[in-house]
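Why predict the complex rather than its parts? Because the way molecules touch one another can change local conformation, and only a joint prediction can capture that. The input here totals 562 residues.
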Amino acid sequence: MRSPAQRAVLAMLLEVAGTPKPGNVDRQREYPDLRFEHFLAGAIGALPGLRAAVEGRSIGAAFETAVAGMSDQEGGNTQFGTLLLLVPLVAVAADDSSSLAPQAVTDHIEATTVEDAAAFYRALEHVSVAAGDPPADAAAIDVRRGADAIPAVRDRELSLYDVMALGSDQDGVAAEWTSGFDRSFAGAARLGDLDGGVLDRTADLFIELLAAQPDTHVRNQHGGTVANEICERAGDLIDADPAAIDQFATELIDREINPGTTADITAGALFIALHRGVITV
Amino acid sequence: MRSPAQRAVLAMLLEVAGTPKPGNVDRQREYPDLRFEHFLAGAIGALPGLRAAVEGRSIGAAFETAVAGMSDQEGGNTQFGTLLLLVPLVAVAADDSSSLAPQAVTDHIEATTVEDAAAFYRALEHVSVAAGDPPADAAAIDVRRGADAIPAVRDRELSLYDVMALGSDQDGVAAEWTSGFDRSFAGAARLGDLDGGVLDRTADLFIELLAAQPDTHVRNQHGGTVANEICERAGDLIDADPAAIDQFATELIDREINPGTTADITAGALFIALHRGVITV
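Output of the joint prediction:
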């Protein structure tokens, strides 16, 4: 019986192993400087932070530890957004090992504090993240400022949940926080319904998620037009010939378009599905 | 900074991710019932046993825990032999984080007891292993008997080291125990000398090890003639065209010939190389 922390690492490994996942590093495709092994090392590195969440450390502190460990590899930011989903999920899974109810997750993250928010901003110091411009009144707490934003966060008495709420229009992971992790939970159920081995289901879920909403990581890096194009084209590829998906995957790698938010939600769904026994390995 | 246990899991993940590794599951090839995800889950499952070794639990108890966790997946025996190398290596790495000297490993395993041997036989209950016929005077302690062999092990007062010494002609992992882990240490040094990313080096080392000695797992499953054939043909593939190695890899999967001992030693070499900083990820 795997612990919640082991299950979370396994979810991260399954996510990166599922192929094809157009634009992202997977078993078959990688970038010259961001390779498969960096994701393996990132997942293993996150373990102490994930264990801290199981042991009841606050979400912010556990997340900061997880990100510090994840980023201790040479590929750069591999799984920041994934951990922002997995840390609260793991914390609740450890509390309530029976069901991992969406409401329990929301209750848990609504209870985050200003200190959790400060830890989140410190975690940003370990990585380079792609983010859109914040709303005009939120420039002082722009995530791109990293730890420099902490005084403004304290002044405004923002909890980590508040910070996520402010970013939820910009970032699909933040939107999960304020929507009861709805795409992650729906994705977990979908993993149970799809056919084939767990890695085939992972790849199929990824395409479906990519087709359902423009990826915010793509939008922040390449703009809304590109994000919408990728979303529409993914829609045409659901149940398409594998060769067509492979071609799309190769094209996106060539264009350096990687739908990272969709990968994050895929990993969240994998964790929930593993925890609930919807999928087994 | 990864802990020794994290480093050992990473070594297991890098081993299975290196491709092509003819005959074995890797990123590109798998068997219908023994797939890439089973190796990912096996590596993560081994973690509590590896941590037990770091924390000073006896080699046998840590190994039994590691194997129980490793085998908690649906593919069957993925990494039994690998863990038989990694558990003592991790234990010594935790004691002596500076250098991991071969003599320290030998000293550590020579100090194993009858209880370590009993735990090893209990660990066999979790998996199905391929083993050759034991010497005539060792039928009572045949590893294929699993825990049933424990009374005979106690009668003869055999330590785990003694058991490995009795099996060293039959099994390349046992031979590592009695030879100062010489192939693992030499492999670690070789990983530093080879070119390319860590997974390319992993695949190159695998071919070199396969060419250097007939794989005992292949010999136990398919006989000496086949093991010698694979060894000789691997020799022709060192520095060969990648297409030729790919063709050989596909052929071995078709013939269900998997050089598992060579993979085990590759994983041992990866752990040592990671620990010493000979390779980085």
